[in-house]
Design brief:
The protein is mainly α. Helices cover 65% and strands 4% of the residues. It has a two-stranded antiparallel ribbon with strand order 1-6. A two-stranded antiparallel sheet has the order 2-3. The protein has a two-stranded antiparallel sheet with strand order 4-5. It starts with a helix and ends with a helix. α7 packs antiparallel against α8 and α17 packs antiparallel against α18. The chain has two domains: 443 residues, Up-down Bundle (Growth Hormone, Chain: A); 69 residues, no CATH class. Keywords: Membrane, Transmembrane, Transmembrane helix.
Length: 552
């Protein structure tokens, strides 16, 4: 197996050409950030009350808040009930059977009227996903995350088998088509099906793009490039918040989020395959041509015969492991086939699960923090940007393992502190929001680390499938997250207490993973199995250190 890191030492770890390819691969991740959190606005539930037959009520609630007319209409048609904070509010799911007669009540049987102060339309308003159908609105994000989970495994595996470039373009074509169709569907069931397909293809492109980025840059730039991939996702959340502020109709917002994928489909003619993947597949001639192109675009002159010499020197003839057979196919089972990799995979998957549960739990919960939804969502994305800068510094100074563990502990503490601030105290909303953003800050760091860390913990032959399986674990949590938030209907602090506890547990388990700081990307299963194991030399050094410490 050719040591591509040594080739990059010669042609540049992050030259002009790699920079161009990096931006091309990351642009779709900006779009993914919008799709992943679109439910915050597309699926939001505005204030609503039972529609009463006849002409007693206006067609909607727009522009008549806090007027005597509105209060009079509400008192005649809608009963009051006690809210979670003990205040008396108008019921959203019941009405008086006869207007003006408060002796008899019934469930809403003629639809609802919705406030249009914030939205012209959402999927909740379009299909009345409130009251007895409220669970269906939570199903929206769960179905999307089911697609995301499936896409991570399917496309991660396909990318390892057929190449990064082909599968990346397939994902983008699928994302474009399903996203456009999703804006024009006649019923909620069909909308959920295509929402699944959007998640399926968008996360496929994310997993493949991330592997691609990690493989085209050298060791000295891998950390910063891998982490800054997440900045594009955060940028997508911020862009979504701005677009949603100006576009209050969910169908138009869906179209605007999707149409830029047409640009990415054009990559077919410009984006080359990953040279590292080509070398891992034994396609040395094609890889050699790409290496020459990298060098030329980066302004590096290679000595005649350098590429052939590098391939021969580091080629498969020096390998004595099972991975020397370039024709062998690798897949899911290779993640758990050997003891060390098996334990590592279980730990990594649990960390992905907790990261996703807390990340999406906090992101989807922004409308429950109080204050302006658009500002909260934008801030939720913006807080990730400094988090990723801190991530790069910490990963290079204290390593991946300690950064992952420490940031998850910070995320857990942020969740616990948010619980301590009562939602009923309107004057403390800024404090509550700040503490929630502290939790988001910590979990953003750990989520960024786990992407980078996973790519470094596994060899080239199973790297995409490893990131894919980790991402699948995260998406299982993403499916659960909307329903975990619903637990707050029983007791408001419960979701944050669950998020905080799991963050602390995952932070402890992260300390059992081997650190990869300063190590080149592994190529073979054999290398990956040995990572973190103590060699006889290490054990002897440890004994000598112990003796020296005793003597001193």
């Amino acid at each position: 197996m050719v040591d591509f890191d040594k080739v990059l030492d010669r042609i540049g770890h992050f030259g002009r050409y790699q920079g161009l390819l990096y931006v091309m691969a990351c642009f779709p991740i900006l779009l993914n950030g919008m799709h992943f959190l679109a439910v915050v606005f597309v699926g939001d539930t505005p204030e609503h009350y039972c529609r009463v037959p006849g002409d007693v009520q206006p067609l909607n609630m727009d522009r008549i808040y806090d007027t005597d007319t509105w209060n009079n209409v509400m008192n005649q048609t809608i009963p009051r009930e006690k809210s979670d904070d003990g205040n008396m509010v108008y019921s959203q799911c019941e009405r008086y059977t006869t207007p003006g007669d408060n002796t008899s009540k019934q469930r809403c049987d003629d639809g609802w009227i919705y406030s249009k102060d914030q939205y012209e339309s959402t999927v909740v308003m379009t299909w009345d996903l409130v009251c007895d159908r409220k669970w269906m609105s939570r199903l929206n994000q769960a179905i999307f995350m089911s697609g995301v989970m499936s896409g991570a495994v399917v496309f991660g595996n396909l990318a390892d088998r057929f190449g990064r470039r082909k599968i990346f373009i397939v994902c983008m074509v699928g994302e474009c088509l399903s996203g456009i169709v999703n804006a024009f569907l006649p019923n909620y069931a069909a909308w959920l099906l295509f929402r699944f397909l959007v998640g399926f293809t968008s996360n496929g492109s994310y997993v493949v793009a991330f592997s691609y980025v990690m493989e085209i840059v050298g060791a000295t730039r891998r950390t910063i490039c891998g982490i800054f991939v997440q900045m594009w996702f955060a940028g997508g959340i911020m862009l979504l918040s701005l677009l949603a502020y100006f576009i209050r109709d969910w169908q138009m917002l869906q179209l605007i989020m999707t149409l830029p994928t047409l640009i990415v489909i054009g990559y077919w003619w410009f984006l080359p395959e990953s040279p590292r993947w080509l070398l891992a597949q034994g396609q040395n001639e094609e890889a050699g041509e790409l290496i020459s192109k990298y060098a030329e675009k980066n302004g590096v002159e290679l000595e005649p015969g350098y590429i052939n010499e590098a391939i021969e020197l580091h080629g498969p003839t020096v390998m004595k492991s099972e991975d020397q057979h370039s024709h062998r196919s690798y897949g899911l089972l290779d993640l758990v086939r050997t003891p060390n990799l098996r334990k590592r995979t279980l730990n990594v998957c649990f960390n992905w699960f907790v990261n996703s549960l807390v990340y999406y739990g906090l992101s989807l919960n922004t409308s429950n923090l109080g204050g302006d939804d658009y500002v909260n969502s934008f801030t939720s994305g913006a807080v990730e940007l400094p988090a990723y800068v801190v991530t790069v510094i910490l990963m290079e100074r204290i390593g991946r393992q300690k950064t992952l563990s420490g940031s998850m502990v910070v995320g857990g503490i942020g969740c616990f502190c948010t619980v301590a601030v009562p939602l009923s105290r309107k004057d403390l909303i800024p404090v509550r929001t700040t503490l929630a953003m502290l939790g988001k800050f910590g979990i953003s760091i750990s989520f960024a680390v786990i992407y980078n860390y996973t790519a470094e913990l596994y060899p080239t032959v199973i790297r995409s499938v490893a990131v894919g399986v980790g991402s699948m674990s995260a998406r299982i949590a993403g499916i659960i997250a909307p329903f975990a938030i619903m637990i707050g209907d029983l007791w408001n602090p419960l979701p944050l207490l669950i998020f905080g506890t799991m963050s602390l547990v995952a932070g402890g388990l992260a300390l059992l993973l081997p650190d990869t700081m300063g190590k080149p990307l592994m190529q073979t299963i054999e290398e990956a199995e040995q990572l973190g194991k103590k060699t006889p030399t290490d054990e002897e050094d440890g004994k000598l250190d112990g003796v020296a410490a005793t003597i001193s």
